[in-house]
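Quick one: structure tokens for this chain, please?
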Amino acid sequence: MIKEKMMSEYIGKKVPGNVVFKTRVRDESVGGSNPYRWEDVKSGDLFKRKRTVLFALPGAFTPTCSDHQLPNYNKLFSEFQACGIKAVYCLSVNDAFVMNNWADSQDVTNVKLIPDGSGLFTKKMGMLVKKDNLGFGLRSWRYAMVVKNGRIEQMFEEAGKDHNIETDPYEVSNPETVLAWLKSNP
């Protein structure tokens, strides 16, 4: 009951649309051994005029995120597409260099990784937590959401959100749970 109440506070709300993500995009015209250029991506542009899924996690290269969450969302992308999802985004409070290297190391081709380096989007979502006990600093709480035309349709927030907790729950923000909801809510 508490979990349902907590998630329902997000339903129908607009996602923060005015956050600028500092991304790095491959551009061969740059030349050299690191042919990338900076490209600003406005958060509102990610969600407008389509149905998307965003999942957020504490950090790139961390065990649960690397062993389960990111690879499974990537692997199940075609099932998301079959449910009308146009894009799946992975957001973390990490910089563009880290997110690009993580995507490369995971051979991610279907999920777009979003660097929320300063945690601005995460803070506006109310999901910024301290993880100083792990040496992480400020990070995202683990959650997933289905967004249609910039509005949250459903939220999958892990239980126990608080600062510096010892556990790292991963029960409701997984792709299987989100897919099950999508299949019953076309």
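The radius of gyration is 16 Å.
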